[in-house]
Amino acid sequence: MLTITDLAQEQRIQPIWRQAFRPLFLFGALFAVLAVAYWIATIIFQLRLPHYGGAMFWHAHEMLYGFVVAIILGFLLTAVQNWTAIRGIYGKPLIFLVALWGLGRLLMLVELESLQWLAAIVDFALLPIACVILARPIVVRKQWRNLVFVPILTLLAINNALMHISVLAEINGLYQQAAFTTVLLISLLITIIGGRVIPMFTANGVGFSKPQPIRGLERSVIVATGAIFVLFFLRLDRLLADSYIALIFALTALLHLFRMLRWKPWCTVKHPLVWSLHAGYGFLVIGFALLAIHWQWHLFTRSTAMHALTVGAMGVMILAMLTRVSLGHSGRPLVAPKWLGGFLLCAIFAALLRTIMLAIYPQYSLWWIASAALLWCIAFSGYLLRYTKILTAPRADGHPG
Fold this sequence. Notes:
The protein is mostly helical.
């Protein structure tokens, strides 16, 4: 691999292909807008368009493995360069990786039986390849602490395979279960990454000392979140009464709440690049609390509760990370662009409408879902409007990347 200081070769590469975050953030955010706009149009106009696996499968799979996974890979494959000081993926290998992701998105729109296996293979291949790219510099530098992300990506790949098997083998209910465990696994990833970056970003952005982590609390919140994933991944939930599952979700929500309060989110109200991270993490609390309520009293569907983790924790946290990481990794000051706070609020209100309002007033479900979709599209369109130039231009400080 080339070193980070190899400026001569850097100048021969288009800026967008110099680091993984650039194309994956750009195309991932664009896909977030197009996929949700397309999805809500099929609902409002009652379109019956063909998709690989059907419309419901397409929506669940593409928002997780089309949108969220693109952002995860953009973040991790860029961060690994900072962790190891070994040049991350760039140039032609990066073009290939992004093209593989894009081809997967196109094939998932086609419902031709002759192309089903091709669609599954192309879509599945992305994560194993990314695992190898991520693991190599970590192993070279023996940074075993960061190797935790490789098994997480591997488990994501397994869940993705299960979703495809549900289509290819026509196993009813498998893709819904695999999608749910994927949501729980990504929630664990947010738990790990959030615990690393939110206290640091808060202290740096607001100007107070970073709170010292309580090791017992940090371990407990990660273990509890991971245990929920294992519980459902291995289908051990079938051995427990609903009230016990509700208790596990409730205790996990409380652990996340206590952890978040130690980061002093109330001190961040003047800093959009910071309070948005706390808002995204806060939806972990809301999501696990709603899942506890669902399992205890069944007042609303699991899907409604789960969207607090998808639209809320994932959507808001992703937008918060995109806005900050895109500035930092492009050598620009960490100053929020004009109107950024408004776009971030759109994402937050989208999550609240899709979860809280839908749970309270389910008779207006179409209105809440459509309004949430509109706000979601505005939020990520705002990011694209303000950040496309940043993602496609050289670093402002002249450094590689």
